[in-house]
Design goal:
single chain; alpha+beta; Aldehyde Ferredoxin Oxidoreductase,  A, domain 1; Aldehyde Ferredoxin Oxidoreductase Protein, subunit A, domain 2; Aldehyde Ferredoxin Oxidoreductase Protein, subunit A, domain 3; 6-stranded mixed beta sheet; 4-stranded mixed beta sheet; 17 strands
Length: about 625
């Protein structure tokens, strides 16, 4: 591995600046950290750098809203280089929603600018005395006051920042949800690019950090410019000549609405069902008729931001997860009505998935007489929008909703229809009849999220009610490249998962950019190392682990589907537990979900990680 290449730590290193910016908001002080070369070799960047920094530098047990918590922005060796969808960065922290590791991937000009400024990551600690903006310009970083921005929505704040700092800068902004510490507040870029589902916008809010502004003027160096150019051009051509490219450009992820309805996985009425009678009104086909423009992240070759006018005439950028969670899951059958909720989430800085999951729980709990103050019913988009306003301001019942569905369900005493894993609400795929996708939600490193492994498409073709070890094997393969390679390199997964181009394109680009001769198996080993360390971070913060933390929502075991071709279907708890044990075995984790000491040692984590595994691992699965 990595033979015949430059030694990291020497002069002339490519792919990394080998510099991380640490900024103490309380002191207003910046310092540069020249991290050791093995950190780049072993963790690459993005998510890898984030969890390594949190593991090494975050005091165990610190509350997510404590000023000692760290907020991290990290790029990777492919970020900002010409190529298919390389304008990405990762934000990470200890999550206020889950209490464990939390991160998110955002396409933003801040990604390109941070790379051009010569930083591999920014680590923010402390809390500013007053609302502030962190400005990074090449080698310099400083704080500026932001009292005039505090309280503004992300769209207005973005425009003000552009006026102040110019169009050539990149911006990461929070809205009122982050300021008011809503536990699923996000970080927003470009008026609709949102990331950090587990409440990372609230972490910024707790630090009174309204925005991060980045401007860079340097050109990232690559090991072999000609080889990189050839690899990037080859990858872009593969995307644009893919048989799936044309349909993707017409509908993007919105195509999934009709597919999910046909497959009985479209969430309806807080995941009671997998089909929705009004699906056509929120479908990709309908969206295609009313779309007014297309938006993308920087360096994107397959734009996914399909923009429509909502019921109030405002422009809003849609995708499947948003419309399913704020449409069918809430009983709303008009795209324009669901789009209003989508826009409010983007403006206020709210995660659309957790918003839809929390509102779905609230509507059902109110229906059952378990939650007062919810003056809304299924399908009543205007009343639901008023709930969003209360939630953002933490007024009345909104103060409870702002805590997310896990905490809300503990308040009502009815937890079995709260649709979350580890505190993070599940993405828009019903799993009554999809044990493999349920396993993907259950073992996602940040809580129930589809990003690390969209197993359900493969699962339906393989055999959806099958509980064999093959599903655990396929899941780990997907986690290795979706949650590993793409989250460390850092780049968008869509060119591979939506147009079907080969992963080898990214291997070639990485090799040409860095000079490291990592093959796909090397990237998979890095991914395994990162997944193990993220799990150990959770174990350390919780003081132990149990398989209940890796179980999908109770509803999928308890309530069978009553509609559609799969009515009567539900998950089998015993079979699912066996599938989970197979996943643990394949990963080299103990029967309680803690990585075994020998696995931790084999992955090269060593030291405190091995000791923690020895303390908490229960024995082979």
């Amino acid at each position: 591995m990595a033979t015949g290449c430059p030694v990291l730590g020497s002069e002339g290193v490519f792919g990394w600046s080998k510099r991380i910016l640490w900024f103490d908001l309380g002191r207003g002080e910046a310092r540069e950290w020249r991290y050791p070369g093995e950190m780049a070799r072993d963790f690459i960047g993005g998510r890898g750098f984030a969890v390594k920094i949190l593991w090494d530098h975050l005091l165990p047990g610190v509350d997510a809203f404590d000023e000692r918590n760290l907020f991290i922005v990290a790029v990777g060796p492919l970020t900002g280089l010409p190529g298919p969808n390389t304008g990405k960065l990762v934000v990470a922290s200890k999550s206020p929603l889950t209490g464990g590791y939390g991160d998110g991937n955002i396409g933003s000009w801040a990604s390109v600018a941070l790379r051009a400024a010569g930083w591999d990551a920014v680590v923010v600690t402390g809390a500013a005395r007053k609302p502030s903006v962190l400005v990074i310009e090449d080698d310099k970083a400083w704080l500026e006051p932001a009292e005039d921005l505090w309280g503004l929505d992300t769209f207005t704040a973005h425009d003000r920042l552009v006026e102040r700092y110019g169009k050539d800068a990149g911006f990461l902004v929070i809205g009122p949800a982050g300021e008011n510490l809503v536990r699923f507040a996000t970080v927003v870029a470009q008026k609709g690019r949102s990331g950090g589902r587990p409440g990372l916008g609230a972490v910024m809010g707790s630090k009174r950090l309204k925005a991060i502004v980045v401007r860079g003027t340097k050109k990232p160096e690559v090991y072999d410019e000609e080889a990189y150019r050839r690899a990037a051009v080859e990858a872009i051509k593969a995307v644009k000549t893919s048989p799936n490219y044309g349909f993707w450009m017409r509908q993007g992820t919105m195509m999934t609405v009709e597919w999910a309805q046909e497959a009985s996985v479209l969430p309806a009425y807080n995941f009671r069902e997998g089909v929705f009678e009004g699906y056509e009104g929120i479908s990709g086909s309908y969206m295609e008729k009313v779309r007014v423009e297309l938006r993308s992240c920087p360096l994107c070759v397959m734009a996914c931001g399909h923009v429509v006018r909502d019921d109030e005439g405002m422009l809003v950028e849609l995708d499947y997860e948003n419309i399913a969670m704020l449409g069918s899951n809430l009983g709303i059958s008009r795209l324009e009505e669901a789009a209003v909720l989508n826009r409010l989430a983007d403006m206020y800085g709210l995660d659309t998935i957790s918003l839809g999951g929390t509102l779905g729980y609230a509507l059902e709990a109110a229906e059952r007489g378990k939650l007062e103050g919810v003056d809304a019913t299924w399908g009543d988009a205007r009343a639901i929008a008023r709930l969003v306003e209360l939630l953002v301001r933490r007024e009345g019942v909104g103060d409870k909703l702002a805590e997310g569905s896990m905490r809300l369900s503990r308040m009502t005493g009815e937890t079995w229809y709260a649709m979350h894993v580890k505190g993070l609400e599940v993405s828009a795929y019903d799993c009554h009849a999809a044990p493999g996708m349920a396993l993907a939600f259950a073992t996602s490193p940040i809580g129930a999220h589809h990003k690390d492994a969209w197993l359900i498409g493969w699962e339906i073709s393989y055999g959806r009610m099958d509980y064999s070890e093959a599903k655990a094997e396929k899941l780990i393969e997907m986690q290795r490249f979706r949650g590993g390679l793409f989250e460390t390199a850092v780049a968008c997964r869509f060119p591979v998962v939506e147009t079907g181009i080969s992963l080898e394109h990214y291997v070639k680009m990485f090799q040409a950019a860095t000079g490291l001769s990592y093959g796909l198996e090397d990237h998979y080993r890095v991914a395994d190392r990162i997944y193990a360390l993220i799990r150990l971070f959770w174990v350390r913060e919780r003081g132990g682990w149990s398989i209940e933390m890796d179980m999908p929502p109770e509803r999928w075991f308890r309530d069978p589907l009553t509609k559609g071709p799969l009515r009567g279907a539900k998950l089998d708890r015993d079979k699912f537990t066996e599938l989970l044990m197979a996943y643990y075995r394949l990963r080299g984790w103990a029967r309680n979900g803690v990585p075994l000491p020998e696995t931790v040692q084999r992955l090269g984590l060593g030291g405190d990680a091995v000791e923690l595994a020895r303390r908490y691992a229960a024995g082979p699965a």
